[in-house]
Amino acid sequence: MNRREGFEEIADGKQLDDKWKSHLEDLTEQAPLSFKLLSESLLPVPVGSSEDAIISLIAFDALQLLAKGELLHLHRCANPDCVLLFMDTTGRRKWCSMKICGNRTKVARHQIRREEN
To answer: Taking CA 106 as the corner, what is the angle to CA 108 and CA 79, rounded to the nearest 5 degrees?
Structure first.
């Protein structure tokens, strides 16, 4: 399972594979972390190559969201042509962006209604 597939499994409401969690943990090991105290918050600072550092921080954030249960708010955009996933804690959102995907859908519906009349 690749990195994105795990997020897609969550967005689809499927059971998360333990291998994906282990994969995220392995990614954080690629760039060992040091820590800095900034504004009374302890922040991880990766040490290593730039690519490993970025991947490590993304994996770290995903693991934190998973541990808090917040990753369960991950959803797919309702636009079938969109590949984006988004977080929705309210349970009301359908689109990744109302300005982009939501507006396109509404404009398309409006045009269909105008053509029917």
So the answer is: 80
CA distances 31 to 23, 41, 53, 65, 108, Å, are: 14, 20, 5, 19, 46
Which of the 8 DSSP states describes residue 14?
P
Q: Digits of tens for pLDDT over the chain (117 positions)? A: 677 888 999 999 998 888 888 888 888 888 788 888 888 888 888 888 888 888 888 898 999 999 999 989 999 998 888 999 999 999 888 988 888 888 877 887 788 888 887
**Angle in degrees, CA 62, 36, 49, rounded to 5:** 65
pTM, full prediction: 0.70
CA distance 22 to 19: 5
